[in-house]
UniProtKB/TrEMBL annotation:
Domain of life: Bacteria
Signal peptide range: 1-22
Taxonomic source organism: Actinomadura madurae
Name recorded for this polypeptide: Secreted protein
Keywords assigned: Signal
């Protein structure tokens, strides 16, 4: 029994903590279902020698109806696949040459065939599509088979989904990955197959009704599903208490003074002059917020990535550093605050050694700093940015960033291996560790995102040794050996922040992080002909064509900030002014950046940031003068309001639809322009781009997912 328990613990380690690297976990499972769903699906699978058909049958159950805010969970999913024998052993060679006899309707012993099946299933409700996150199924041969095919079967338990709106909720299959292993026919080398159905067949559906009166306002407890975890369907958003301002106030909620947590307020250093602390002493109440996010975590030792979901309450601006004097001080804004991350257990199902499905529940709990007598569990939050209208100089910081730091520990329970429960006790978990996350939110070239629009946090953490794992035997060393270590990477995409004290109810109307699915991806060239920048009157800079070249990865769950770095080129450019034309050479100060704005009503809006154009040519001093031998320059970008001798970057904003990005911008002629004003591009004047339609080759699709 001891040896068996240790083997189960070793297998369980993969799933036990894989979902717990984030500061929070996913909501738990819902009740079992009752109505049958399923389909027989003819998949076409790609092999090195062509395509083969694999018939797959899926059978599960789901409730006949569901309600908003209540988990909907299919029951045990049974899957079977009829796999052609040639995929495993290749065509048979007749003994002694000649033609092989037809295969008799007898059987072949193929019980040694095993494998896994990953069925990609979408959950569809209206225009919203989520990945159902079905588990990987372990497959085994079901008894004897014909010589033409082997039948593999398996089963598993899927995760629940908690609908947030009424309407039809459907499951659709979109892909299949098979990994097959025949100890005789494949010489120990598994065969991997990527398979697609001829369409996106529906497996089943559930009609979702509105909340019951008793359930209205009650946070849902189920789990939204996506490979990058769907955030909880509802966020228990509450106003985190303000810091103490009077003697006797609760000291638990304030900046955490622990040395390692407080370090984020001092590194990187803030400017030594031109700023002031607000308030000069103590704390302001600050502003309370809620946010929820989704992402993934890697456990380095296991080489695996697992979905995570997050929900946080925090205060920003309890301490602020800003320009002093306001209009002539340093271009710098810093807000300090504290954060509390609430957690619920999250479950993971993986395949461990020997294709054994392993399930465990884990959560990350936020802990007080070591030696803190107040039991202050909050972590620290720091946001630093230049003023986004860069009108005060000198710059105190070039980019906008956020940092978050807290103490956490991993707790593990409810472990099972291949359906066999493994009792790890009630106190199995890791020691206290420091979780540090950071977010880059832009600079002058890339453009900026507002902190409360949501951002991407990334970071690494060490997982300490485990303790108190096992009942009757100490399984802690196995968890430590399988999981503990450094270099465990986490990435979380935050949704827009909301204010619980405002009229808008964060619980009733939660906003999810917007990540994008991009297809088909690849190298893209976007062209417009002609390309025109209009100056004063009829003056214009006109190019025969402009091209934007960039690369987009085909991927899911892509953050919309810094989608692609863009290299622009211009051909056949002239200055047209006062009835004359003069050749120009257009160049840019640096590459540009595409950023996405939130998709609203299926409308995709893109920004093209980092625009600073230099147009040089030989331009006469007067409208009727002779062409000189030297060149001057027209520089078009943006001008800081109170620093007219400086120049900054401009941006284009426009909609993307049907393979075309149609954008406009009102830019400024900078005071580093050396060409004469009669050109229609005088210093501090305007240069306008109106409805420039860039056609993309190949066209791209941007969808929420």
């Amino acid at each position: 029994m001891l040896q068996y328990g240790r083997r189960l613990a070793s297998l369980a380690a993969t799933a036990a903590v894989a979902t717990a690297l984030a500061v929070v976990g996913m909501p738990g499972a819902g009740p079992s279902a009752s109505a049958d769903i399923g389909a027989e699906l003819p998949f076409l699978c790609t092999t090195p020698t062509g395509t083969q058909r694999v018939d797959v049958a899926v059978k599960a159950s789901a409730p006949a109806a569901g309600r908003v805010g209540e988990p909907v969970q299919p029951g045990t999913v049974a899957i079977s696949a009829n796999v052609p024998s040639t995929l495993l052993r290749g065509p048979a060679e007749p003994a002694g040459g000649g033609t092989a006899d037809p295969v008799a309707p007898g059987v072949q012993a193929m019980a040694g065939v095993t494998g896994t099946a990953r069925l990609d299933v979408d959950i569809v409700q209206g225009t919203r599509v989520l990945d159902a996150g079905w588990p990987v199924f372990a497959l085994a041969a079901e008894g004897p088979s014909t010589g033409e095919a082997v039948r593999l079967t398996g089963h598993g338990v899927t995760s629940p989904i908690t609908p947030s709106a009424p309407g039809q909720l459907a499951w659709r299959a979109r892909g299949l990955t098979l990994v097959l292993d025949d100890s005789e026919g494949t010489a120990g080398k598994p065969v991997s197959l990527n398979c697609t159905p001829p369409r996106s067949p529906r497996l089943g559906s559930v009609s979702v009704r509105g909340r019951t009166p008793a359930a209205a306002g009650v946070p849902a407890t189920g789990q939204g599903i996506a490979p990058q975890a769907e955030p909880p369907s509802t966020l228990e958003c509450f106003e985190i208490p303000p810091p103490p301002v009077n003697p006797g106030d609760d000291p638990e909620y304030s900046l955490n003074l622990d040395e390692k947590l407080y370090e984020i307020f001092n590194k990187p250093e803030r400017p030594s002059t031109g700023i002031a602390r607000v308030p000069p002493e103590g704390y302001d109440p600050g502003l309370p917020y809620c946010a929820r996010g989704a992402g993934f975590a890697n456990i380095k030792k296991l080489g695996s990535a697992t979905p995570i979901a997050a929900e946080s309450v925090f205060r920003r601006g309890v301490v602020t550093y800003r320009a002093n004097p306001p209009t002539t001080g340093t271009n710098y804004l810093e807000q300090q605050g504290y954060v509390l991350n609430t957690t619920v257990p999250s479950r993971a199902t993986i395949l461990s050694l020997g294709f054994m499905p392993t399930t465990a529940a884990a959560e990350t709990v936020q802990l007080r700093a070591p030696g803190d007598p107040i039991n202050r569990k909050v972590g620290n939050l720091r946001i630093v940015a230049p003023l986004q209208a860069p009108n005060v100089r000198p710059p105190g910081v070039e980019s906008s960033n956020a940092w978050m730091r807290q103490y956490v520990a991993v707790r593990v329970k409810d472990v099972s291996v291949n359906g066999t429960a493994l009792n790890v006790g009630q106190n199995c978990g890791s020691g206290r560790t420091l979780l540090s996350l950071s977010s880059f939110m832009g600079d002058e070239e890339t453009g900026f995102i507002r902190p409360d629009d949501g951002q991407t946090f990334t970071g690494e953490m060490d997982i300490p040794a485990f303790s108190h794992c096992g009942v009757g035997e100490d399984l802690s060393p196995l968890f430590t050996a399988s999981i503990s270590g450094s270099g465990n990477y986490a990435k979380i995409e935050s949704g827009p922040w909301c204010r619980p004290s405002e009229t808008r109810d964060c619980d009733a109307d939660p906003e999810e992080p917007q990540t994008w699915t991009i297809s088909p991806g690849g190298d893209v060239t976007a062209t417009v002909a002609p390309f025109v920048i209009a100056g004063t009157g009829a003056s214009q800079i006109r190019c025969e064509a402009a091209a934007l070249r960039f690369h987009l990865d085909k991927q899911h769950w892509r953050q919309r900030f810094m989608l692609a770095e863009v290299t622009p080129t211009f051909t056949g450019c002239v200055l047209s002014a006062s009835g004359r034309e003069f050749p120009l050479a257009l160049s840019v100060a640096s590459n540009w950046w595409f950023n996405g704005r939130p998709i609203v009503n299926d409308t995709v809006t893109l920004e093209l940031n980092g625009i600073l154009i230099n147009a040089s040519g030989k331009i006469p001093a007067t409208a009727t003068g002779e062409v000189p031998s030297t060149s001057c320059a027209i520089r078009i970008g943006n001008i800081p309001a109170l620093a007219s001798t400086e120049e900054t970057y401009a941006g284009l904003v426009g909609g993307y639809a049907n393979g075309t990005f149609t954008a406009s911008a009102s830019m400024r002629v900078t005071n580093k322009t050396t060409c004469p004003s009669w050109t229609g591009f005088s210093r501090a004047g305007f240069g306008r781009i109106t409805n420039a339609a860039f056609a993309w080759d190949p066209p791209q699709n941007f969808t929420l997912k």
